[in-house]
Amino acid sequence: NNSVMLNNCAGYPEVSYDIIRDARKISELDKRWPQLKYDYQFGIDEQYLWKKEFLKHGSCGIKRYPQPAYFDLAMNLKDKFDLLSTLRNHGITPGSTYQLDDIEKAIKTVSIKVPSLKCIEKYPGDV
Question: What is the pTM of this model?
Answer without folding.
Answer: 0.69
